[in-house]
Amino acid sequence: MTVGDDTDLVTRAEFEPTKTSPPTTLTQAYRYALDPTPDQANLLRSHIGATRFAYNALLGLVKVNWDENRTRKETGEDVAKEDYLGTSHFDLQRLWYERRAELAPWWGENNSSSYNYACLNLSKAFANWRRGQARFPTFKRRGSKATVSLMPGAVKLTDSHHVRISRVGVVKSYESTRKMHRHLERDTGRILSATVSEVGGKFFISFTLEVVRSIPATRAPEKVIGVDVGISTLYTGATPNGEQVLMVENPRHFVRAEKRLAHTQRVASRRQGPGPGQAPSKRWRKANSRVQKIHAEIANSRKNLINETTTRLAKNYDLIVIEDLNVTGILKNHSLAKHISDAAWGEFRRQLEYKTTWYGSALIIADRFYASSKTCSHCGAVKAKLSLDERMFHCEACGLTIDRDVNAAINLARLGLPGTSSGTGRGGEVRPEHQILNATAHPDEASTETLTLVSA
Ligand SMILES: [Zn+2]
Questions:
Q1: How far apart are the CA of 320 and the centre of ligand 1, in A?
Q2: CA dist., res. 122 & res. 128, Å (int)
Q3: What is the pTM of this model?
Q4: Which of 178, 181, 195, 224 is the most exposed place for a label (fewest CB within 10 A)?
């Protein structure tokens, strides 16, 4: 044991194996790419447009009403409280109901979810403004975040490859929805919400499900792995005794796609984008939609890779030790790479957090001040400096020469061994039963497979 005697930064989680664990209710998100027919795509766009329309129409009515009342007040008239249009969800729903025939004679073409969620979102926007958390609600422009939420009753999985959406029909999904379908069939899952979004010309549906699941009892740690997160080698894993057991390279197509993205972003930036009182040019829209498409592509393949890696880790190891984001050393790279790797790191950690809970393993996040890269995994000597481009670690004290990432991974793995205890209390301790029970995430962030859990 070379690590921990005087570094003392991390507490090993206390494990009390239990035999039974009661079923828990979790909130789980699923996201699927849809393959609508041209007609269905038009209907989906119509629903998205109807939400925006209702939102803007109601906001317009409220604004006009408030302005009129202000003018009346200024001219000395008495304005009663009842003269003001209310902005609660209920008020707005009633207002829409009263005025829809005149404002939107076509309202019946879309299912009522579109309008209901417009009312809900607008009432939330007003509430946030009242609390001082947001500016006064503004009109939504075409092309701003295009989504429509559906009421749980308006959407159904008919089998493992089709989603029935009220007023749109049975829409094919690109991916198998088997896992979610099984929950619904067995009655272990209930749809809480569903949202359809259009990103870069592709449609996605995100579900939030309430799922009943029994969490496996936590075992005492036997297999320990430390994982270093990097750029060219995305994930390097090693055991405490120095064996390298995991190496996930950054796939070349990621690197190529990222270059393509940087290029199209530069193209878009040279064209006339949206600004105050200025509509974006056609050429900008074209370039921007290309940017969005590549973004979606990269995000998707990255998520698949993260999914595979985290499942493999959580299934095969009892204790996984990773470093905190700030020590990854990626940060000095230019902003695009940083942005992408930050997002990927966050997703990697989030998936490990819930998957370790599912599989009964545990996760330790090393203290951000722990120098996993600069510490020699053989003698424990700590280097004063290690520049980012030094790919090999050379120890002046004992002469060890080892791959930099493997060295870091070994050091991390050793933090998971018994006897490394925290003297500083600066974090790093993760008790599996307390891990992330309050974590929430927007369903849009969900991976294809799963996300997030919330205790109940
Ligand atoms: Zn050494």
A1: 24
A2: 10
A3: 0.48
A4: 178
